[in-house]
Amino acid sequence: MIRGMIRDAVLRPLRTSDAPAVWRAFASAADMRRQGAVASEEEARSYVRPLTEDPHQAFAITEDTDTLVGLILVTVDASNRSGWFSYWMNASPADAAGRPERPPLLPTGRSPRVAWSDSNSATG
Questions:
Q1: What pTM did the predictor assign?
Q2: Which of 2, 23, 29, 80 could form a disulfide with 44 if both were Cys (CB 3.0 to 4.6 A apart)?
Q3: Strand, coil or helix: what is 48?
Q4: What is the mean pLDDT of the chain?
Q5: H/E run at residue 104
């Protein structure tokens, strides 16, 4: 669940430089595993790179800082004049901007569960 509100969201093309924010988004919630395997910044770069090429049209959802807080993706099937639409959001808008630091990975490779208060500060 996303707590808080994103004000004045802007869409822009996804960039390879968005990889650190993508990594933070994947660390923000365990169910992001459904979107792909991203457990490091290098894996985030590998995730982003193909989304910036055909047949994908990927858009970063950003706030006033131009930092990615979510992703909208359309995979285009030109021959059938259709496309597959998907999206995801960082579970914590504060974490999307890099505040606070990304929690360290556990030995299993999973992030510890982090609870967020309404003020977007880590509580446990």
A1: 0.70
A2: 23
A3: helix
A4: 78
A5: none
